[in-house]
Design goal:
single chain; 2 helices; globular; Jelly Rolls; 133 residues; 7-stranded mixed sheet; two-stranded antiparallel sheet; mainly beta
Length: 133
C-alpha cells in the first residue's frame, strides 16, 4: 500500500544544502561591524556546524525560537556563541572550547557562532544585533 506524503510536513527540511557565505553588516549600539558569515538554514548544515572545518563564522536560522544546545565535538578551535531572539537581541553569550558542551537557558531564533574574539568583546548580553541578508 502506498501512502501519500503531505509536503507541508517537510517545509523546514531541505535535501539540498543551500548555505551561502555572505558578508553581512551587523550593527551594535549604532556601530557597524563587518563579518563574513555562512547562513545555515537546513537541518543538515545546522547539524554539521563547524565540525571538521576551518575557522569560519556561522549564523543558524531556525523556524521558531527553541532551545539550541551545542557541542564542540571535532571543532578544534574556540568560538564565541550568541543566542538571539526573533528581534536580534542577545539573550545569552558563551565562550566555547573544543570538545565541550553548552545548554542555553533561553530559547533562540538565531545562533551566531563567531571565531573572531574581537567581535565577541564588542557584543554584550542585551545588545541588539541588526543585519540585512
Amino acid at each position: 500500500m502506498v501512502k501519500a506524503v503531505n509536503m507541508k510536513e517537510f517545509k523546514y527540511f531541505t535535501i539540498l544544502d543551500t548555505n551561502m557565505v555572505k558578508s553581512i553588516k551587523i550593527s551594535v549600539k549604532g556601530k557597524r561591524l563587518f563579518i563574513n558569515v555562512e547562513v545555515c538554514r537546513s537541518p543538515l548544515s545546522q547539524a554539521r556546524g563547524l565540525m571538521f572545518s576551518k575557522r569560519r563564522n556561522l549564523l543558524f536560522v531556525f523556524p521558531e525560537e527553541r532551545f539550541v544546545p551545542l557541542h564542540m565535538f571535532f571543532v578544534f578551535f574556540p568560538i564565541e556563541v550568541f543566542f538571539l531572539n526573533s528581534k536580534g537581541r542577545v539573550l545569552e553569550k558563551a565562550h566555547l572550547k573544543p570538545f565541550s558542551f553548552f545548554s542555553p537557558k533561553k530559547r533562540a531564533k538565531y545562533v551566531l557562532e563567531v571565531c573572531e574574539s574581537s567581535f565577541g568583546e564588542k557584543v554584550k548580553v542585551g545588545d541588539l544585533l541588526l543585519w540585512t541578508e
